[in-house]
Amino acid sequence: MKNSITSKRRDVLKTMAGFAASLLVPKVVRGEKASAKPFDWADDSIHYDPHDHKWGMGVDIDKCIGCGRCANACKIENDVPKEPFFFRTWVERYEVHENGETTIDCPNGAVDGFEKKSGDDDVLRSFFVPKLCNHCENPPCVQVCPVGATYQSADGVVLVDADYCLGCRYCIQACPYGARFLHPVTRTAEKCTFCYHRIVRGEEPACVEACPTEARIFGELDQKASPLHRFKRMNHIGVLKPALNTEPKVFYANLDMEVK
Amino acid sequence: MEEIVQHLTPLLDQVTGYIYPNEIELHWGLLVVIYPYLTGLVAGAFILASLVKVFNVKELQPTYRLSLLTALAFIVIAPLPLLAHLGHPEKSFEIFLTPNVNSAMAMFGFVYAWYLMAVLLLELWFDFRQDLVTMANESKGFKRLFYRTISLFSKDLSEKAIAFDHKAVRVITIIGIPSAFLLHGYVGFLFGSIKANPWWSSVLIPIVFLFSAIVSGVALVILLYMVITPLRNKVVDMLCLDKLASYLFYIMIVDFSLEILDFIHRVYESEESISILASLVQNKLFSSLVIMQVLMGMILPLFTIAAVKTFKVPADLRKLLYFISAILVQVGIFSTRWNVVIGGQLFSKSFMGLTTYKMTFFGLEGLLVSIGLLIMPFIILWILIKILDPWRSEDAALSTPTTGQ
Amino acid sequence: MNNWISKIPEQIKLLAVVVTVIITAFLIVRPMLIPAGFGEQGHFRSGALNDAVAVQFKYAGKASCVECHDDMTDMLAGGYHKKLSCEVCHGPLAGHIDDPDENTPSFPRERTLCPVCHEYLSSRPTGFPQIVSQSHNSLKACISCHEPHDPVPPDVPSQCSACHGEISRSKAVSHHVDIECEFCHTTPELHKTSPRQYRPSKPQNREFCGQCHTKNSKHNTKAPRIDLATHETRYDCWQCHYPHLPEAR
User: Fold this and answer.
1) CATH number where A159 lies
2) Could C18 and B152 be called an inter-chain contact, meaning their C-beta atoms sit closer than 8 Å?
């Protein structure tokens, strides 16, 4: 997935950070060895070890019909405030015009779908792009969180500990994708969890469940028997803002250069 | 909840182009503008003070203690706007419990604590120890106990001990200069290290922050010195004031050059973000950046001080011009902080649109609290001056004519 | 020894006491306040994982529906909506599993639901069945003609325009208005039931268009003529001219 030069450089950086850390913070707190022992869930019915999984999502832009059922289902499943300022996932409509300009719109995050736009006669090409947290392998939000309230679980899912979050919003500033928001009631950072409560119980995320055209594929990255593996084999794949080296784990098939 | 919705709904109409749906709420408001402004004043005032001790600039001696106390008064308030902007200020202690070593912000607590305790308080304590002991000896009752306590029950007034105080002050100042650089350069790094935001992400930002901090600190001490001295029925020392203005002038030139370099570099490299940034500067930031920050806050005072240096200007007019320049500089540096913090959030990270910041008046993040936070350091400074009486020995020296220089 | 201590300036001794008190207090208090389990799984509170999974399901998932409603899901499995999850139309129904009588599904019958997916939008992928609801039996509910669990047109479409409305509308205002779809496309019968799997044919070469448009064609005399041998020979006709609206520039 990543080439050896970048991973080597990251090792060097990790070593350096580790050295700096050893000067400042006791070992227990640093959690250097993310222990290999399976996590002891409070809910006994869960038999899920984060160390055995690596989750990702595939999004086929050519299959997205812009119905917004994913955005709608996400709001319901995760009790996301209904107001049009808070989204864990949303769908954008792109229209590339003949004069080279691109217009994007996303009325209410596409929770109610899209309506025909007037004056789209000069459109060269047009398509929908579902967006969500990219669960970056190299997440800038986790890097900047001052207290360890946003973190990457062993399965690669980036989560927020609402109980521990200060609400400093540095993570919101650091996310290049606009995937985070401050929950208006709890005053803590919030974002897509890949429906963590569902995936630990063997269910798919709500947006994937709700997608009528299989434009969203959820699955394991490190296993061959995974719909995501085939998705990555059969399509030309792009990720959002690759130059920022965040290494997203949301993979887009048929991604257009105009997608921001 | 309803309040937030009422606040955000009208903003939807003011978006031009496309912004990501979560970007309508601007997260770092006026309070986060004030935070780097205040810390900048701290670092600037301290570096001015250190000129006296480390580089032995004798002309600035009258402002030495004033600068140090100013730094203290402002650093006490500096974390308050940060605290007030948190969603959960009551959890802020977690930053000391489980600091994430990869997070620039996590280091804030440590940098701040180091600077406050190991540098400022320590230097002030050594510098004022002799006075504190004397004042304790001269007073009675509660006052005596108070001075005793803050002198940490020190009593030694021997020549050797006082010589040690002087030596300690010098050593701490030498440590203090890099610490002050660290404090404010670090604040710049908080913004400069955000790769998602092209307006912030620049290696120059920490250095620009640092020099603008010194500029604002020196200008503040000029203002305070010019206001407080007449209040004490003393005469402003023109040698000192001219020297302060000179330092202000030279540092402003460095600061301005760095800002221009940053500007030219961005325009010349002309990266993906250049069109949205250009539109940001031409629309949303035109008055606060081009007019307030550059013309009023930088070019006008630079020309004024340059004119004063070139032509023979009578002392009274000189004072007036310095005073006006220092106020303009404050306005300019405040605009700098505004343009960095607010400006960096007025464009979408999709680079496809601009949004708006609507300031509130009431509430924790409103204008009222911010004005309060800007006034508080001056009240604290007044209290510190009352308690510590920084010009004690100076006044005593003047009242006994036999003690000449 | 005593001599050595007395040589230390008073100030240092006092400050040493203060510093020791502060650091000791920090070192004692800090471990007491760090939440349990912090750092066990990484630099975060392990309990946060339990919080993350404590969310109540709202969507039960199609697998749960199958358990009782296999008649409906069987019907679904044979049609175009086979990949559709029941809860997309009937609403989130996790509560229905716990108490089927209390939490009942919604049965939307309005004309507003289906167009969320099937209204014609130029941004939707070509080939996805779309209608313009204003002109498509505008007073009838969708389900009066279409069974949503096995949605096929009331009788297998006799006209291409039923699904390819945008093309038929373009063609209607073009010079090609009188040319039937079948003139250029041969359409396998199975395309009507499995449109993506069985595709209609498309013209293969320049000579096809040349039937009418070459200078010595014997067809329709009004059609613009070109010399096939010299006119932009590297390209196929449809690389420059859109066949459904050939006058568009």
Assistant:
1) 3.30.70.20
2) yes
